[in-house]
Design brief:
The protein contains 11 helices and 16 strands. By secondary structure, it is of the alpha/beta class. Strands 3, 5, 6, 7, 8, 15 and 16 form a 7-stranded mixed beta sheet that branches. A 6-stranded parallel beta sheet has the order 11-10-9-12-13-14, sandwiched between helices. A 3-stranded antiparallel beta sheet has the order 2-1-4, with no helix packed on it. α11 links the parallel β15 and β16. α3 crosses α10. The two termini are 15 Å apart.
Length: 329
C-alpha cells in the first residue's frame, strides 16, 4: 500500500484527499518510482477544479512532475535499473499517469536520469517549466542573440525558466510583473528590464526600452487587456505565443497591430513537444546541458510536506510565489 492524492469531486484545494492504495507492478515498458518530491503546476489546480483541458472520471489522481528512485522495472525497459535517480516528464494525460503519490508508475519513455547535482526538490521542478519555455522560445520562435523577448507573469516558474533560457542564448529578457515588489528579485534572476504593469504604462515602457524597432517575441500566459499594449510594442513580423489564460477578462483581438505589422498570435501547449519524439529529444538535450552547466537552475518558491498537499494548493492558487512550489514525500 502507498499513499496517493485523489479528489472525489471538483472544487477548491480542500477536495484533495490522501488515501492508501495498492500500486500495481510496472507493465511492459514501464517503471515504478519511489517518489521523493513533487512539483506543483497550475494545470493540476485546473484539473482539480474542473477547468482543465482534460476531464477526469471521479475519483481521480493528479500531478505532472515527480522525482525519485526507480523501485522496479517492467519488461522491455532498457537504460534504467532499480536504484536510478530519475525525474518525470509531464505526461499527455495526468489522469492516466498521476504523479501525486509515494509510489507512481510511468512509461520509461517519460523518465529521465537528471544530473546528480540536483536535489530532489530541484529535480521535481525541471520539466514542465523548461519544456514550456524551450518549446515556445526556441522550438517555435527561434529566439536568438539579437532578440528581445517580453516575458509576462515573469515570477512564475515558467517565467523564470524563460528568463534563464533567454540569457543562455544571448537574448534580452524583459520581465513583466504585476507590482514592483518582485522587481529586484527578477533583476537578480537575470531580467534585463522589469516592468510593473499595475504601476507603470506597459506600452510606454516597452517602447522606451526597445525604441521604434519593436519587440519580436512575446511570451504570455495571461491574455486579457494586456494584448493591446503588448502587440502595439511588437516589431513587424513578430510572434506572440500564448500559453495560458490567467486573465478573467475578455482578450481583445488587436486587429490593426496584427494587420499593419503582420504579427503571428500563436497558441501553445507543452504537449506539442512532449508528443513529438524528435522535438522532445532536442529539448531534453538542451535542458540537461543547461542544468549540468548551471545555466539553468530551478527556483524553489516554497516547500511543503506531503501531508500538507491542501495547504500547498492553497499557496499555489494565491499566485504570489516566486518560482516553483514543491512537495516532499
Amino acid at each position: 500500500m502507498a499513499r496517493v492524492v485523489r479528489f472525489h469531486e471538483h472544487g477548491g484545494p480542500e477536495v484533495l484527499r490522501i488515501e492508501s492504495h495498492d500500486v500495481a507492478l510496472p507493465a511492459v515498458g514501464e517503471v515504478r518510482i519511489c517518489v521523493k518530491a513533487l512539483g506543483l503546476n497550475r494545470a493540476e489546480a485546473l484539473l482539480r477544479s474542473g477547468r482543465y483541458i482534460e476531464t477526469p472520471m471521479l475519483p481521480s489522481g493528479l500531478g505532472l512532475e515527480a522525482a525519485g528512485v526507480i523501485e522496479a522495472i517492467g519488461d522491455k525497459v532498457e537504460g534504467f535499473v532499480p536504484g536510478d535517480a530519475v525525474s518525470v516528464i509531464p505526461p499527455i494525460s495526468m489522469v492516466r499517469w498521476p504523479a501525486y503519490g509515494e509510489l507512481v508508475t510511468f512509461p520509461a519513455s517519460q523518465v529521465v536520469k537528471h544530473p546528480s547535482s540536483l536535489s530532489w526538490e530541484a529535480a521535481a521542478s525541471v520539466w514542465m517549466q523548461y519544456l514550456t519555455a524551450y518549446g515556445s522560445l526556441l522550438d517555435i520562435a527561434r529566439l536568438g542573440k539579437d532578440d528581445t523577448v517580453v516575458i509576462t507573469a515573469a515570477s512564475s516558474s515558467v517565467g523564470l525558466a524563460a528568463i534563464q533560457i533567454a540569457n543562455l542564448v544571448g537574448a534580452t529578457p524583459i520581465a513583466v510583473t504585476r507590482t514592483s515588489a518582485k522587481r529586484q528579485a527578477l533583476l537578480n534572476a537575470g531580467a534585463a528590464h522589469v516592468i510593473a504593469s499595475a504601476e507603470e504604462d506597459l506600452g510606454g515602457r516597452l517602447k522606451e526600452i526597445n525604441g521604434v524597432e519593436g519587440i519580436r517575441v512575446v511570451f504570455d500566459p495571461i491574455g486579457g487587456p494586456i494584448f493591446e499594449p503588448l502587440t502595439a510594442a511588437m516589431a513587424r513580423g513578430g510572434i506572440l505565443i500564448e500559453y495560458g489564460g490567467l486573465s478573467p477578462e475578455p482578450t481583445p483581438f488587436p486587429l490593426f497591430p496584427v494587420l499593419s505589422k503582420s504579427l503571428t498570435l500563436r497558441g501553445y501547449l507543452v504537449h506539442e513537444i512532449i508528443g513529438d519524439r524528435r522535438r522532445l529529444e532536442a529539448a531534453k538535450a538542451f535542458i540537461l546541458d543547461g542544468l549540468a552547466s548551471g545555466s539553468l537552475k530551478p527556483v524553489i518558491a516554497k516547500t511543503f510536506p506531503f501531508e500538507e498537499i491542501v495547504e500547498a494548493h492553497r499557496y499555489l492558487e494565491a499566485n504570489e510565489q516566486f518560482g516553483k512550489i514543491v512537495v516532499t514525500v
